[in-house]
Amino acid sequence: MIDPATVYGLTGAAVVGIGLYGFLSLRHLLRRVLAFNVVGSGIFLMFGAAGYRGAAVEADPVPQALIITGIVVALAATALAVGLILAYAGATGRRTLPEDDL
Amino acid sequence: MTAPAIDIVLCATVLAVALAAVSGFGVFRAVVFFIVYGVLISMAWLRLDAVDVALAEAAIGAGLTGVLLLSAVARVTRLTGSGSYRPRVNALPAAIAAAGVTVALGWAFLGLPVPRGLTEDVARNLDRSGLENPVNAVLLNFRAWDTLLESVVLLAALIGVWALAPDSGWGGRAGVPQHARRGGVLESFGRTLPPLGLMIGVYVVWAGATAPGGAFQGGTVLAAVLLLVAMAGLLPAPRIAAAGLRLALVAGPAVFLAVGMAGLGWGGFLVLPPAIAKPLILGIEAALTLSIAVTLALLVLGRPEPSTEGGG
C-alpha cells in the first residue's frame, strides 16, 4: 500500500518539522543547536529515501556519499556553535539570548 | 511494494524519540534522547541499504555529537548555574510553522518524479575508480572535490573554535583538564579499549575499499580512542601550538591537494589515472584518516582554557 522509501521520506519530512519546532521555540542555546541537528538529519533521511529503489535494486551511491559528507560537516558546524555558546556563557553567565526574555 | 511492519515501527519510534529530544525540560535528558535518536536513525539507514551512512551516523551523528553535547551541558551548567528558567517561547506559532513546513515537504516528496539516479553511471565506471565500494568510489574519486573541501571545512571549524580561546590560553592544551577516578569505570575503559579501537579504526578504513567503511568512519573511531584516553585523564590533551599536531591536522588536505595537482598532468585537477588510482587513493586515505581523527578529537575537546596552562 505504501512502499518503504515513502515511509522513510515522510518520516524525514516529519523529523524536519519536529526539529524546526524545537529550533524556533527552545530558549536554551544548546537545545537549539541540538534541534538544528535534528532538522539536518531529517533532510538527510528524505534525500536518502529519495535515492532508494527497493531491496532488489542497489541503492544509489551518490546521495549516500553526499550524506556522509553532510554528517561530517554538521559535526564541524555543531562543534563551532558549541564553542561559541561556551564563550558566550563564560562572558555573560547566560545560557539563553536576551531577546527571548519577553 | 508494501513497507514491512519493522519499517513502520522504526519510523514511529524515530519520531517519538525526536519529539522527546526537543520537548520536556532537562537539557541533559534532551541530549540523551538525541543520542538514542542517532542510533535509531542509523538503523533506518541500514534498512535503506545505506550501510556506509549507517556507520557514519552511528559514529559521528550519535557518538561524537553526543559526547560534544554532553560535555557542553556540563560546562554550560557550571558557567551559568542550574536555576530554573522558562524553557520555550512562542511555542504555538513555532508549532504551526513547523507543521506547515512538514506538510509542504511531504507533499513535495510525494510529487517527486522517480529519479533515474546515478547508480548505473557509477557501476559502469567502478572498475576505473580503483575501489570496489561504490560509495567510497564517489567520495574519493568521482566527487573528490567534495571530500577535499570537506576536509578543509573541518580544519576551518577547528580554527574557528581555537580563535575563541582567550589570549592567556592560546597555545595551551585543548579543552579543560580531565580527571577520572583511579580504578574507576572510565579509567579502566581508557586502558582496555584503545588497542581494540585502534584495530577497529584501521580495519574500517582498509575495508572501505571493498566493503562498507572508509576514512571518515574509521577516522571517527580513532578520534574516539584519542578522546577516551584524554577524557580518562591518562594522557594530557595536546598543546595546540605543537608542530607535530599541526602537521597531523594538515596532512590529509595537503596530500589530497598534492595528488589533485599531480592530476593536472593526466588531464585535470583531481583526475586519477585508473592504472594507479588504487595506490593514490590509499595514500590519500592514510593521510586523510590521520587528519580526520585528530581534527574531530580536537573539535570535541574544544578551545584551550587558561587554567590548562602548566597543568600536567
Describe it.
The complex is a heterodimer of chains A (102) and B (312). By secondary structure, chain A is mainly α. Chain A has a single domain (4-100), classed as Helix Hairpins, CATH 1.10.287.3510. In chain A, 75% of the residues lie in helices and 0% in strands. Chain B is globular and about 65 Å long. Chain B folds into two domains: 1-115, Up-down Bundle (Four Helix Bundle (Hemerythrin (Met), subunit A)); 131-312, no CATH class. With 312 residues, chain B is an all-alpha fold. In chain B, helix 3 packs parallel to helix 9 (215-231), helix 7 (144-163) runs parallel beside helix 11 (277-301) and helix 9 packs parallel to helix 11. At the A-B interface, helix 1, helix 2 and helix 3 of A face helix 1, helix 2, helix 3, helix 4 and helix 5 of B.
Topology (elements, then pairings):
The complex is a heterodimer of chains A (102) and B (312).
Chain A (H helix, E strand, L loop, with lengths): L3 H22 L3 H22 L10 H32 L10
Chain B lengths: L4 H18 L4 H21 L3 H30 L10 H20 L8 H7 L8 H9 L1 H20 L21 H23 L7 H17 L11 H20 L14 H25 L11
Helix pairs in contact in B: 1-2, 2-3, 3-9, 3-11, 6-7, 7-10, 7-11, 8-9, 9-11, 10-11
**Which blocks of ≥5 consecutive residues of chain A have pLDDT under 50?**
none
Q: Tell me the β content of chain B.
A: under 5%
CATH architecture of chain A: Orthogonal Bundle
Instruction: Indicate how many domains the architecture of chain B comprises.
Output: 2
The first-level CATH class name of chain A: Mainly Alpha
Roughly what is the average pLDDT of chain B, rounded to an integer?
Answer: 91
Assembly state = heterodimer
Compute the gyration radius of chain B: what is it? 22 Å
**Roughly what is the average pLDDT of chain A, rounded to an integer?**
92
Shape of chain B: globular
